Amino acid sequence: MAHAETTVDRITSECLAARVRLLNRQVLRLYDAALRPLKIKVTQLNVLVVLARLGPCSPTALTQVLDMEKSTLSRNVERLRLRGFVAVEAGPSGRTQVVAVTPKGQKLLDAALPRWEAAQRQTEQLLGARTMEALRRLPTARWA
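Below the sequence we write its predicted structure tokens.
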């Protein structure tokens, strides 16, 4: 049984996947707290940013670019649509949909910028200069 405890201890103390998952949650909380007065989550902000960057596109394209599950994207798009930040219309074939940022959504992006910047600074402080430098060396997002 000592071997099992050693295995568990090692994985518990060294698992990068678990630590990255915890870090992800902490970072998301920082951004969500900063954006809370706007009643938007950072995942929704990212959907708006991608749409503003790419222009109107299909939900399928959004899931690929954001590397997001279809159900998660659908929930976020629906919440944004209900608040008037995105429009969802029939695509050219009539069988697909196209999602686009509305003028109200663009205003939200502008209003979110200082709050996003504050969360960005907090995250940089949390992670430290060396980690930030390493993260900036990673390949850029598919929508950058």
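The radius of gyration is 19 Å.
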